[in-house]
């Protein structure tokens, strides 16, 4: 349960399409992909987020990526200067966070600012509350919803607020939406593009990143996209023309077919829902457990995440990730405390039968913790 690698079967469509388009490996692929790929992604975005017609020109506003990770990194390389308004540029990062965000900031000589995403703020970072001078030198902000590790989902209003802030302070917000298709019952998580459009924000301040890694259970296909305003997309295209690895043609054709198919996504989501229900069943009511609203991780307050990880492994053979390894103490916030220290992250990627003993072990730990705190109060 330590690694977020999807384990559901890959769709048959993927195998068939890769085999059918194999001859395409004989050609150098274009850096901006094929018209078919861009149209499929554009149509998917328009339908999924009910975007008004003409929001995106697929040929100018969408680029293929080899998964979101390299795109998240390259966006900062292409778009974040090392100084802004005469000062060291800042890159805003939710804390805890996906490690690539911080590496990207450091790579361009910008200052990573680790903004805590705590329970009192719905497990999401509150960029609007940051000091004015920090926002003025912010060049790029990462925002992840559904979030890894907490499974939080930002409302459309909240996403729109971040986009408006990006416009006001002239920075770019990169919405990492790679978990967008994994959610329990209820409406699908809103996205950055629809929020920016609703807020009337110029898309030149907005990029969204998504991939087939989680949506189609194909992390090894390395296929994703970035979409947004023409300005930032064309800047990324220029960098990628020299420094990027273009997505191979068979992968682009296969991705096109996968973005046009929802049946396999619905089937995979149903398997995740079984596992959300199992977690609710086994951990519901225990202190430290909150049901995730999206993504496939449990983010559990166990008091000491590293010690609990060791105990789970040593005594029960269950592997999870200490939350501290996903977070960072930043002296500007919560007295420099690492906001992940109290937590463990457990991935619900394996089948229910494999997860059951793992969840039972975690339930024992949360239960014992609850008993201790009752005894301590008594
Ligand atoms: C928050 C987040 N963003 C991005 C990625 C990268 O995914 P990929 O490059 O496979 O699209 C991951 C992978 O686990 C992730 O958790």
Radius of gyration (CA) equals 21 Å
Bound molecules: pyridoxal-5'-phosphate
**What is the number of helical segments per DSSP (H or I, 4+ residues)?**
14
What's the CATH architecture name of the largest domain?
A: 3-Layer(aba) Sandwich
Q: Spatial order of the strands in the main sheet? A: 1-9-8-7-6-4-5
Name the poorly predicted regions: none
Quaternary structure: single chain
Element pattern in H and E:
HHHEHEEEHEHEHEHEHEHHHEHEEH
Main CATH class of the largest domain: Alpha Beta
Taken from the alpha-carbon principal axes, the silhouette is globular
Helix content: 40-55%
The domain tally reads: 2
CATH topology of the largest domain: Aspartate Aminotransferase, domain 2
The average pLDDT value, as a whole number, equals: 96
């Amino acid at each position: 349960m330590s690694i977020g690698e999807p384990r559901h079967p890959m769709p048959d469509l993927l195998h068939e399409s890769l085999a059918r388009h194999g001859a395409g490996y004989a050609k150098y692929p274009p850096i901006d992909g094929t018209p078919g790929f861009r149209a499929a992604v554009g149509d998917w975005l328009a339908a999924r987020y009910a975007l008004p017609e003409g929001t995106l020109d697929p040929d100018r506003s969408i680029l293929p990526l080899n998964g979101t990770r390299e795109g998240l990194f390259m966006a900062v390389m292409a778009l974040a200067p090392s100084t802004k308004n005469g000062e060291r540029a800042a890159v805003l990062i939710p804390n805890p966070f996906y490690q690539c965000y911080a590496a990207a900031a450091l790579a361009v000589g910008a200052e990573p600012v680790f903004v805590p995403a705590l329970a009192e703020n719905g497990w999401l970072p509150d960029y609007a509350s940051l000091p004015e001078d920090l926002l003025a030198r912010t060049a790029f902000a990462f925002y992840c919803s559904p979030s890894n590790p907490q499974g939080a989902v930002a409302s459309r209003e909240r996403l729109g607020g971040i986009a408006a802030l990006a416009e006001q302070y002239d920075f770019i917000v990169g919405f990492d939406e790679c978990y967008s298709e994994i959610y329990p019952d209820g409406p699908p998580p809103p996205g950055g593009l629809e929020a920016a459009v609703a807020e009337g924000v110029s898309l030149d301040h907005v990029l969204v990143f998504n991939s087939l890694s989680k949506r189609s259970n194909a992390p090894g296909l390395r296929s994703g996209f970035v979409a947004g305003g023409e300005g930032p997309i064309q800047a990324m295209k220029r960098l990628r023309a020299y420094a990027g690895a273009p997505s191979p043609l068979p992968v682009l054709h296969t991705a096109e077919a996968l973005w046009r198919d929802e049946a396999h996504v619905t089937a995979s989501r149903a398997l995740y829902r079984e596992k959300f229900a199992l977690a609710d069943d086994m951990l519901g009511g225990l202190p430290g457990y909150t049901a995730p609203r999206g993504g496939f991780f449990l983010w559990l307050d166990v008091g000491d995440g590293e010690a609990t990880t060791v105990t789970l492994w040593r005594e029960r053979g269950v592997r999870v990730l200490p939350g501290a390894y996903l977070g960072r103490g930043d002296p500007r916030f919560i007295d420099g405390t690492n906001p992940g220290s109290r937590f463990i992250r457990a991935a619900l990627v394996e089948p229910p039968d494999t997860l059951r003993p793992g969840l039972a072990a975690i339930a024992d730990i949360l239960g014992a913790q609850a008993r201790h705190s009752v005894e301590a109060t008594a």
